[in-house]
Amino acid sequence: MNYRAPAEVLDDHLRESQHGTVEDDLARNYAEDLVVLTASGVFRGHDGLRQLAQRLREELPEAVFEYKNLLVEGELGFLEWSARGSGAEVEDGADSYLIRDGRIVAQTIHYTVIPSNG
User: What is the 3-state secondary structure (H, E, C) of 42-60?
Assistant: First the structure.
């Protein structure tokens, strides 16, 4: 794979998050020794990210995501997002990324799921 700048990696990750698959996203954009920090603990590697993706699908079925703010500076990326799913929503989504050699090597994820009336 050719070198990709951090902004390119994040753009591809967000495209895959909206229209692709977790597996394609993992293969193209994430290091195998990835570390993800969340309020519920530390998740490692592709299997850890698969667990987190499954949890988000369960918490926000049929979710539609809106990316509100994306910043990239050097190896660091920051994303603010919201989402609406079947019976729940998120208004305070915030992820940060560390990108090296064309792969996301570390990520933090924060969001609060709020039941919705619809």
Answer: EEEHHHHHHHHHHHHHHHC
Least Cα distance to 81 among 39, 18, 22 occurs for 18
The span from the CA of 85 to the CA of 105, in Å, is 28
Mean pLDDT estimate for the chain: 95
- C-alpha distances in angstroms, 110 versus 10, 27, 96, 97, 102? 17, 23, 9, 12, 23
Average pLDDT estimate for 3-7: 94
Residue keyed to tokens 């079925």: 61
pLDDT tens digits, one per residue of 84-106: 999 999 999 999 999 999 999 99
Asked if 102 and 85 count as a contact pair (C-beta separation under 8 A), the reply is: no
> Within 10 A of 28 (CB to CB), how many other CB atoms are there?
16
Q: pLDDT tens digits, residue range 12-44?
A: 999 998 888 999 999 999 999 999 999 999 999
Residue with tokens 């994820």: 109
E strands, 7-102, where? Answer: 30-38, 41-44, 64-73, 76-85, 88-100
